[in-house]
Amino acid sequence: MRKKTSGKKTLSIKLKLTLWFTSFMVLTAALCLGLILLVSGRVAENEAFNILSLTARANLTEVSLEDGTLTISPDFQFYSNDVYFLIYNKNGAVLSGQAPPSFSPDAPLENGVSKFVSGTDGSADYYVLDFWIPSGWDDGLWLRGVLRSPDGRQMTGNIFTLFAIVLPFLILLAAAGGWLIARRALAPISRIADAAESISRGQDLSLRTGIPEGRDEVGRLAGSFDRMFARLEQSFEAEKQFTSDASHELRTPTAVILAQCSYAKKHGSTVEDYREAISVIHRQAEKMSLLISRLLDITRLDLGTQKLKRESADLSEMARILCEEQDTGARGISLETRIQDGVTGLFDPFLISRVIINLLDNARKYGRENGHIRLSLAAEEQEAVLTVEDDGIGIPPEEQDRIWQRFYQVNSSREGGSGLGLGLSMVRQIVDLHGGSISVESRPGEGSRFIVRLPL
Ligand code: ADP
């Protein structure tokens, strides 16, 4: 169960929708009931007058007054289709026929007029239709048809009983339908809320709503939430990675510094001893500082906070300047360049210079003493192709896939402890961000060639 945030009682949306559906249903049913009662009353009345008129007209020719004598044919029916017939003389006295109980035969006679007459004891009402059958100039008969009106109260009662039976079912159906529809429509929102809640409790960051991103509002909301969750997960992962990488990699230089300090304190006696200890500490501190800045760079790239700042850059110019700045002479290594002029494109100049520096750095580190490094740059079709080649120790084929992994070093002893194993993973990340590719061709003992392709 979800906790309520305020003390104020609030109805859930599901309940509100269900209540709305149900009240709407009850209102509609009440309206229908009223309409049915109204219409059925009218229909019954019309029907009654119709029957009365037809039956009376059929009897009209079966009765006559001939020479002052009442003649009734055998086809005359005193009671037919629930209609009672009475025959009156011209003065309004009943000559023949039987009136239904509670009907007063004295009701005034009106030729051809149908009317509604109340019974004497209030138990029934009657529809009445009279016809004047003339005989000669001043004589004649009255024929009166009397039809007991259908019991209005009973009919209303029947309709009410029907509604009393059907209505509870209808209400139940409306409530259940409303509840189900509301639950279905709101299910995605519940899923979003559950995912958000579980993420905020820090349980599982890989959780997603799993709702396909549709065009409707809920689909769009779910899509936004999923993207936000993905971003959160990426941030947490990058932070976790940074913390574990930093704590793991800083342990060795920290241990070396501490060991050097306690050695110098215990055994250091000459200036030479202290100078040596300080230079070891200095080297380790430099390594730590480099490591931290590299890790921060990588974390920023992972997080996406270090965004590509693409600008129109002259790659040829950049490569030329960087080659001039690089100190390759230290191990007697010479640098040859073959740079095509005017290779320009939209790059992040700072990040691309990191690529070139890293590759040149590696070529120098793993290059042969007094060897050669060759850097070439050319535009091929829609790509800038940069290659950095050395004639150093090379990389065994089985290691060539792994050198791109973070902290991976082929054999740290052959590197003389100078590397961190972070350079190539960062290079690859930068090239990927630019939509390019990087590959290596290498033979142990002969040298390596790194090829970077960047779309122009
Ligand atoms: P590092 O800081 O160790 O140089 P990198 O990520 O730059 O880290 O390189 C990963 C590994 O790939 C290195 O440890 C090294 O063994 C190998 N490597 C990289 N460049 C070269 C190269 N030009 N020649 C031979 N091996 C190389």
TrEMBL record:
Main location: membrane
Catalysed reaction equations from the record: ATP + protein L-histidine = ADP + protein N-phospho-L-histidine
Annotated localization: Membrane
Entry's Gene Ontology molecular function annotations: phosphorelay sensor kinase activity
Cellular component GO terms, alphabetical: membrane
Record-listed E.C. numbers: 2.7.13.3
Domain HAMP: 183-237
The Histidine kinase domain, residue ranges: 245-456
Keywords: Kinase, Membrane, Phosphoprotein, Transferase, Transmembrane, Transmembrane helix, Two-component regulatory system
Key word Membrane present: yes
InterPro entries cross-referenced by the UniProt entry: HAMP_dom (IPR003660), HATPase_C_sf (IPR036890), HATPase_dom (IPR003594), His_kinase_dom (IPR005467), HisK_dim/P_dom (IPR003661), HisK_dim/P_sf (IPR036097), Sig_transdc_His_kin-like_C (IPR004358), TCS_sensor_his_kinase (IPR050428)
Transmembrane segments: 159-182
Protein name stated in the entry: histidine kinase
Enzyme class, first EC level, given as a word: transferase
Superkingdom in the source lineage: Bacteria
